């Protein structure tokens, strides 16, 4: 019931030996606010934004970034809905988080924030598809490998559909698993 607003920085913030390439803002789902901007007259004509903004905090943030900073905002897809929403619960190393399959990338939140564009992906392997969960190993052109563990088995159909729509091959599925997914998707299309 929270919204995350992730800002990728051109130059990472540093604290000691740790660098932070992303800033993550979190807002509650039902937080509504009314803010009044104090935009100088010189900028008011170029920014084209009302001096008073009202609505959910996430929408106000998106409006500010779009108009003032000039950067578009990417939102989660409504095309691929998983069991809990437009994301997948899993873990990366010891950290639990959520994986967001977006239009042109995958984004893992929380610690660490991982951003993988589809163009970077060399290979994706489904591993340990047994019982109630499976793992996704994603290898990138930079030589990085990310193992997303503990993905709920019920998410497999949507993951296969998502990666097929992006023309990304998913390795590690045997013929029986592929056939079950294909026939389930076919029945779903015929039912609609």
Task: Name a few traits of the molecule.
single chain, about 45% strand, alpha+beta, 4 helices, 8-stranded mixed sheet, about 25% helix, two-stranded antiparallel ribbon, about 190 residues
Task: Give the helices and strands, then pairings.
Blueprint: E1 2-15, E2 18-28, E3 32-36, H1 41-47, E4 52-56, H2 57-69, E5 88-92, E6 95-101, E7 105-109, E8 114-117, E9 121-130, E10 133-140, E11 145-152, H3 156-165, E12 170-171, H4 175-191
Parallel strand pairs: 9-12
Antiparallel strand pairs: 1-2, 3-4, 5-6, 5-11, 6-7, 7-8, 9-10, 10-11
- Structural classification: alpha+beta
Q: Would you count the extended β strands for me?
A: 12
Global morphology? elongated
Q: Approximately what portion of the residues adopt beta-strand conformation?
A: 35-45%
Count of helical regions? 4
Order of strands in the sheet with the most strands?
A: 8-7-6-5-11-10-9-12
Query: Termini distance?
Result: 30 Å
> Please, what is the average pLDDT?
81
| Major sheet description | 8 strands, mixed
Oligomer: single chain
The low-confidence runs, each spanning 5 or more residues with pLDDT under 50, are none
What share of residues is helical? 10-25%
* String of helices and strands: EEEHEHEEEEEEEHEH
Radius of gyration of CA atoms, rounded to a whole number: 20 Å
